[in-house]
Every structure is written in C-alpha cells, then in structure tokens.
Amino acid sequence: MKITIVGSGYVGLVTGACFSEVGINVVCVDIDSKKIENLNKGIIPIYEPGLEDMITRNMNKGRLSFTTSIETAVKESEVVFISVGTPPDEDGSADLKYVLAVARDCGKHMTDYTLIVTKSTVPVGTSLKVKEAVQDELNKRNVSIEFDVASNPEFLKEGAAINDFLKPDRIVVGLNSERAESLMSSLYKPFTLNGHPVIFMDIVSAEMTKYAANAMLATKISFINDIANLCEIVGADVNKVRKGIGSDTRIGHKFIYPGIGYGGSCFPKDVQALIRTADENNYNLQVLQAVESVNKYQKLVLFNKINSYYNGDLKGKTIGVWGLSFKPQTDDMREAPALYIINSLLEAGAVVKAYDPVALEEAKHHFGDRITYCDEQYETLIDADCLAILTEWPEFKFPSFKIIKKLLSKPLVFDGRNIYDRDEMAKYGFEYFCIGVRSKK
Ligand code: NAD
After folding, report:
1. What is the ipTM of this complex?
2. 30-55: per-residue pLDDT in tens?
3. If you placed Cys at 164, which of 123, 156, 302, 325 could pair as Cys (CB 3.0 to 4.6 Å)?
C-alpha cells in the first residue's frame, strides 16, 4: 500500500517515519520547499529522539520519500493523511485554512478511490467541511470519483513521539464507511498486535475525543498549579500533597506536577479552540475557562518571585536561565513558559544568559540578540545574580551545586519545575524558591 502524509512537521514526520518502518510506502509532502530539500538530504527540521535514524533508515530502503508535489503523491496513494497545522485564529478558534487547502488539493488531483484522513487536531464538524471541499473540486472537474473521509486524531507526545506512535495507548478512528474501516484496520494492524486497540467511532466523537483528552490533561496541570499556589500561602508543601493525592488510583500520579504552566503547540490552542466551539454552540465551558486563566497566571509566577525578591527593581540584574523548550526532549518553544518569563525579565531591564540542550537555535528566532546564548549550562552563571530553571531537562537534576555557588554572585535559585529539594538546598547554603512550597528563610 502507498500512502501520502501532507504536512511534514512534528506529526507528519513521525507518522510517515513510523508507517514506513513497518513496511508501508510513504510519501511525505510539504509546501515548504526548503524543508523538503533538507529532508531529501537527510537534514531533519526538528529534534525528536530516534526520528533522524528512522527517517534515514527508511529513505535508504526506498520506503520513505519527500516531495513538494501533492499532485503526484495524491495520484499514487490510496490513503492521504492531513497533518498540517491548525493554529489559533484571532478569536481562539482553530484556523482550518491549511487543512481545507489540502482537502481541495486532494479533490483536484485524485484519480481513483481515496481515503482522506484528518490527523491534524480539528474542531467538531471539520471532516464534513473536508468532504465538501473535496467534492467541490471533483464537481469543478466534472468527474465522479469515490472517496471517504475519516478522523484519526494524533495523541503522540513530543519528546516521546516515536514510542507513542509505535506503541500507542489507543488509536482513535472516526469514520462512516466499511471500506474506510477495513483500510484503517490494515494500516494500523502492525501497531495493534500487542493489544493496543483501535477504537472506532463516529467522526464527530473522534474529533471531540482529541480536544477532550488535551482539555483533561490541561485541567490536571492547572488544578495542581492552583493548589500549589494555595499550598505556598497556607504553608503546605505541594510536593507532599502531590504524592498524597496521586497514590489514590482514581487520581493517579501522572500530570499533577506543579510548575510554571502548560505550553507547547497543543494544550493552549486546543483549550482555546474547545472554549470557542462551546461559545459557537451557546454553551459556556466554565471549567476550561478557569483552566486557561490559571495557566496565564502560572506562566508568570516565577517571574513574579524573581521580581519581588529584587523589590521590583530588575534593572541590570543578570539571570542565568536553564531550559527554554516547553518541556524536556524537544526543541519546541511554541507557547513555552520561557517565552513569557524571559520577555518579562527583559522588559523589566534584566540581562538574560540562557542554555538549553537542544532549543538554542529555536530560541534565536524568538529573542534574536536580546539575550546571550550559552553552549554550556554553567556558562550562564558567570557574572549572574541568580539561576532560574524553566525546563526540567534530566541533565539539570544533579548539577554540581559547588560550581553553581562559586559562579553566582550569591547562592540564589528560582526553580520553576521543583527539581531540587528545598531542605537540601538550604543545607547547601542556597536561597531557594520553587512552586507551591514556602522558601526557607
Ligand atoms: P507543524 O507546524 O510542525 O507542521 C505542519 C506542517 O504542515 C508544516 O511543515 C507546514 O509547512 C505544512 N503545511 C502547511 N500547509 C500545507 C499544505 N497546504 N500542503 C502541505 N504542507 C503544508 O505542526 P505539527 O506540530 O506537526 O501539528 C500538526 C497538527 O497535528 C496540528 O493540528 C496539531 O494540533 C496536531 N497535533 C500536534 C501534536 C504535537 O505534539 N506537535 C500532537 C498531536 C496533534
């Protein structure tokens, strides 16, 4: 079977690489010709563990190729996955122009039965719009070609995307035709042999499932952050509270780590888009509105701590920053708390020296020459007044506190990810501020 993946970003590349890994012939398409030119040279545009090796291996086997020509790809494929971006529109709703442009391209170029699968995260009702766009193009061509549409939202996590795709908790597929079901079953068979199920459902429910999943995860994060802020006020330790509640199996330990808010390309935009969908249907999603507003507040909690430590006068203070990506194991900085915190520091007149294991190049697009980029974590601390930790990269978890203390003008750490222990930090002689735990005076 030959399939096309349109949109060669995080989702498209991982999807294409993983399908080719199990022996399917895959063509990945993108409108960004530079990206395709690089991919054809083996240059991968994103950092995702294991992806480069998998892409190279399958390109060499002739099962994976890259092109800007959607026409050739669609003509040759029985299944076309749409995995282009769905960024937020000005009002927070998902902008569908890229998805619908691909749907139109499918209608313009398909010559035989085609199953068009939306993998991008799209609001309820989008698959119907995809169907209409394809049909419209077929009508313009005055041809009658059978096709189906399906919704197959993607649940992969950046940083663990390959593993998530190869061994998914579940695969959700929304469709309304037996032919489409049989095609999707056979495509996903290699990934379901060890018991991970494909959950078939109607299209509307599949579209909703993706948003509900991300909204639930965002809710857990905002919930624990809200509790963390209260813990700090009343003198409780959120790290202990987290363990105490997480051991209840109805709650669980995952996704209740306090921090500086959720970021990334999905949670912020998907929460907004779901609120928007509710608005359009005259329903008020009260919980999610609170989730969003807690997150906005939380993104500046660490900045506020730093600012108030210096009595609102950050002019000339140098802050060493460890971590820029929105989470570890990725170079993705979309909606990263680091963007908000560093911009606030700069606006307040502070100097920022930053290190991240993989996101420095990406950071240059955001900050240009407004901050200093360091190739090594301790370099950020030379002539710095304090250290701020914004991403919980594993390599930050056991640093040399001796070196940190020696380099900083005073032993002062602001930890937005609670990766150190307050009592130990006090023993080492640090003033230590984290989330949801009062600092030791
Ligand atoms: P991305 O921005 O990394 O990649 C999108 C790609 O689509 C870009 O390379 C862009 O050039 C290309 N593109 C845009 N219009 C095109 C067109 N007409 N023809 C061909 N290519 C086109 O986006 P992403 O992070 O991969 O996300 C894609 C979708 O998947 C979004 O809807 C997102 O919400 C969803 N999603 C993302 C993740 C994630 O972790 N990144 C996880 C699950 C779902």
Report:
1. 0.99
2. 999 999 999 999 999 999 999 999 99
3. 156
